[in-house]
Specification:
By secondary structure, the chain is α/β, with parallel strands linked by helices. The protein has helices at residues 43-47, 79-82, 93-106, 130-134, 156-161, 206-222, 239-251, 271-284, 329-341, 353-366, 386-395, 410-421, 423-426, 433-437, 456-465, 485-499; strands spanning 11-18, 26-33, 36-41, 55-66, 68-70, 85-86, 113-118, 142-146, 151-154, 174-178, 185-191, 225-232, 258-265, 291-299, 345-350, 377-380, 398-401, 442-444, 517-520, 537-542, 545-549. It folds into 3 domains: 3-67 and 512-551, Urease, subunit C, domain 1; 70-74 and 204-499, Alpha-Beta Barrel (TIM Barrel); 84-197, Diaminopimelate Epimerase, Chain A, domain 1 (Roll). The protein has 16 helices and 21 strands. Strand 20 and strand 21 (545-549) form a beta hairpin. Helix 6 crosses helix 7 (239-251), helix 9 (329-341) crosses helix 10 (353-366) and helix 10 (353-366) runs parallel beside helix 11. The longest helix is centred in the middle third of the chain and has 17 residues, at 206-222. The N and C termini lie far apart (49 Å). Pfam families: Amidohydro_3.
């Protein structure tokens, strides 16, 4: 652009800028006009774009980074927190009981009490039982969803309403936990067995979902997140209402974050129906910039803590038990190929090494077009082996990692993961450096509301330290899997944009891209790495407009 055609900037930002471009460049300034970045470089260069009405930000302390991405969050399921009892971040059964009682006292007319966030490891070997909830009430049905969303804890009234007793048969791809030596259900239902309680869960309206999505958006913006992917699923098959919530916010001009959504194929689903619905929502939002539906989500397995992750070798505490795949290899292959042939991406949940094998087999089976830019993803990736890294790189698979979990959590790691996997496998959980060093595009995900609150600076801290924030004395998880701050920032910014096919317009601070950026109150590139988690987002900008700043009222669900 020559001097005679140079634009006048609406906004100029001065400060240390981590651009996240291909060279991981640093800059001193950027200029913005009409929501786009028109200049990135030194301060003198930016000054040439200044005009009489140009707004100037002097961010001389801290760091400016691109807007960040949430690679996997159950956004519309924020209803669980807004319209139910939150059991997240509690430390004992008594804490759960206290929280439920307090919720019931403040919601005396509630016909069903639902909630989420309990941790399996807090209970003994028998797990959560109905009698604990029965001591609170035997008249009001209660349905609590675990923190990982792979099991349900219910009271006797809930079981009575759906007719569950000693004679209830096992559920395919599910587990009804029973008292030892009997057929009597304990009140703990894993994986697909949780579907038995779909009819008991409270009904949510489109307005409920819209409010919940807006509440999540507040949380996202307060953490510098400007892109978010939801692998949507609904035990009550309320997809229409969830999407109507998004549509309502979009029509009202309230969507600020760029949302991308996937439609889930569960083991009990009819593929023809799922693909018809996926096509319907894809077409409905095809030309909507703030929300699009371009992805099929599949489950390859469950979770380690429920003994439902699919492993190559037996669980350490259960000889002969390797877990089971959610879908057969043949069914996974067929679903993946059908999705790819229709032009969709696939996003797969895979925890165990055998589940990762199955997903990679399916991707290899389905990725038949030599010149196509495939962006298939695997999320969680808990139990990996080196050959997975090689295959992911060769197939161009995006690693949607969960750094929020990459530390030796006393409840999960010591109580569940190490006993269930054994020391050898547990000590090598959650590859990170192995993935990034191989050149695999990596993004970050909280799996919200599994992780509450989903603080992006906690994620960065955990990628760099592999130790719980504030506990530098802790032994790191998976020795040798820490990564650099720059690698972590790339995963949070460019990697997430790439995952969602948005890297041409977002994900880095470069001329021509949307002016989505975040102001941090400290320079995470230079501060002691053990202090990264203390960093705060002070402001979030989307297309050059400030959409959140420190001091804004706390997001509704986290009050």
């Amino acid at each position: 652009m020559d001097e005679t055609t140079k634009m006048t900037a609406d906004l100029i930002v001065y400060g240390k800028i981590y651009t996240a471009d291909s060279k991981r460049s640093l800059a001193q300034a950027m200029a913005v006009a009409d929501g786009k970045i028109i200049y990135v470089g030194d301060k003198a260069g930016a000054e040439r774009y200044a005009g009489e009405n140009t707004q100037v930000i002097e961010h001389d302390k801290g760091l400016v980074i691109p807007g960040m991405t949430e690679g996997h969050a159950h956004i519309s399921s924020t209803t669980e927190i807004v319209y139910g009892v939150s059991l997240a971040n509690k430390e004992s059964i008594d804490d759960y009981v206290t929280a439920i009682k307090a919720y019931m006292a403040s919601h005396p007319d509630e016909k069903v009490v639902s909630g989420s966030g309990f941790e399996n490891g807090i209970f003994g070997s028998l797990g959560p039982t109905a009698d604990i909830l029965d001591d609170i009430s035997t008249d009001v049905p209660m349905v609590m969803i675990s923190e990982d969303h792979h099991s349900y804890w219910v009271n006797s009234k809930a079981m009575e309403l759906v007719g569950i007793d000693e004679t209830t048969a096992e559920v395919p791809n599910g587990v009804i936990v029973r008292y030892p030596g009997t057929s009597r259900p304990t009140g703990w239902f894993k994986e697909m067995a949780g579907n038995l309680f779909s009819a008991v869960l409270p009904e949510m309206t489109a307005d409920n979902f819209a409010h919940a999505i807006e509440c999540y958006q507040d949380i996202a913006l307060s953490n510098g997140v400007t892109i978010a992917f939801e692998p949507m699923f609904d035990k009550k098959q309320n997809y229409d209402r969830r999407f109507a919530g998004y549509a309502k916010l979009n029509s009202e001009g309230k969507l600020k974050v760029t949302f991308r959504v996937g439609y889930t194929l569960e083991p009990v689903d009819d593929e023809d129906y799922v693909f018809a619905e996926l096509s319907k929502y894809h077409e409905k939002f095809r030309y909507v910039s703030k929300i699009q539906v371009n992805t099929l989500k599949i489950f390859a397995d469950g979770v380690v803590e429920g003994h439902t992750a699919f492993l190559r070798d037996d669980y350490a505490d259960a000889p002969g038990d390797k877990g089971e795949p959610m879908l057969s290899q043949e069914r996974t292959n067929a679903a993946v190929k059908r999705a790819l042939d229709a032009g969709y991406d696939v996003h797969a949940h895979a925890i165990g090494d055998a589940a990762i094998d199955e997903v990679l087999n399916a991707y290899e089976y389905g990725q038949t077009e030599i010149d196509r830019d495939y962006r298939n993803a695997i999320t969680h990736l808990q139990v990996m082996v080196p050959e997975h890294v090689d295959r992911m790189k060769r197939l161009g698979v995006v690693a949607v990692t969960n750094p929020y979990w990459h530390f030796r959590n006393s409840v999960y790691y010591d109580t569940l993961e190490k006993p269930f996997l054994g020391e050898e496998r547990a000590s090598k959980e959650y590859y990170m450096r192995s993935i990034t060093d191989a050149g695999i595009v990596t993004s970050c995900a909280s799996d919200f509301p599994v992780t509450v609150p989903p603080r992006t600076m906690d994620a960065l801290h955990l990628m760099v330290n592999r130790k719980q924030p504030g506990h530098s004395e802790m032994e790191e998880m998976g020795t040798g899997e820490t990564i650099s701050v720059e690698d972590g920032l790339q995963a949070l910014t460019y990697g997430g944009a790439y995952q969602n096919r948005l890297e041409k317009t977002k994900g880095s601070v470069e001329a021509g891209k949307d002016a989505d950026f975040v102001l941090l109150d400290s320079d995470v590139l230079t501060i002691p790495k053990e202090d990264i988690y203390k960093t705060q987002v002070t402001a979030t900008y989307i297309c050059g407009e400030k959409v959140w700043s420190l001091g804004t009222e706390a997001p509704d669900p986290l009050r």
